[in-house]
UniProtKB/TrEMBL annotation:
SUPFAM superfamilies: alpha/beta-Hydrolases
Protein name: Alpha/beta fold hydrolase
Ranges for domain AB hydrolase-1: 26-258
InterPro entries: AB_hydrolase, AB_hydrolase_1, AB_hydrolase_fold
Organism whose genome encodes this protein: Halosimplex aquaticum
GO MF annotation list: hydrolase activity
Alphabetical UniProt keywords: Hydrolase
Amino acid sequence: MPTTETTTSDDGTEIKYERHGDGQPLICLHGGMAPSEYWQPVIPHFETYAPVVPQRPGFGTCRDGLDETGPDDVLDREVSYVRALVDAVDGEPVLFGHSFGALTALEAAKDAPVEAVAAYEPAVLPEAFAEHADLADRMQERLDADDRAGSMKLYVDQVVCAGEVDDLDAWLAEWPVWPDCVDLVEEVIRMNRVVERYALPDRLDVEVPVLVLTGTEGPEFLRESARNVHEALPKGHLVDFDGVSHSGPAEAPGRTADEVRAFLGSH
C-alpha cells in the first residue's frame, strides 16, 4: 500500500505525494490535465523502484493561495515544488514527466540532484508553431462566457486528441477523468500561457542523461518538439513509439516502462 507524505516548497506551498514501494525514488510528474491517478497504470511496472506521485500545486486539493498566480510565475512554482520533492526523498531520484510535467522535469534537472530524466513529449512548442499559438486566449474566451466545459473541451481536442476525434463528446464519455478535470480549467489556461511563452534554448543545461519519448499518434507539433528537445540535450536519447498517442504512459504503460527501465539500466 502507498504511503501519503508531505513536504513544503520554498514558497511555503505544502506538497502532498504518494510513495509506492521501496527502491530508488522515481518522481512521476503528471501533465496539464491528468490528476496524480494518471500514473496508476505505470506504477506496477516499476517494481524495483519507489514511484513518488505528487499532486501538482493548483490541481486537485492543492489550490490554496494559487488562484492569483500569474503565468510568469507558474513554471518557477512548478520547478520549486519538484526541487522540494527531490530534497524530501532518499538518494538521487529519477524524474519521469509527461507533457507539462516533462517540461518541469527538464527545468528542475538543471540544478536539482537527480540521476536521470525521462520526458514523454515535453510541452514545448516549435518556434514556428509558437508564433501563432493562441490556445490559452481561446480557452479564456470560453471561460469568460461561463463555458467551463467548452474551454476544457478545446484543450482536449487540440492537445490530447490532436484534433483528430470526430465525435469529441462520445470520446469524452469514455475518458475516465472527464468531467472532473473541468474544475482545473483556470490552471490549465495558466499552464498553456507558460507553454506558449517558453523558448527552447539551443542547449538545455541538463547534464544528466535524459530519455525523450514520443508517439506517432500524438500531435505532430509535440513530436517535432520532442526531437528539438532531444537535439538540445547534451546527453539525450530519443524513442519514438509506433501507434501511441500523447497519452503514452497511461495508454501503453508496459512499453513506456520497459524503455525507461532499459534506459536507466544502461546508465
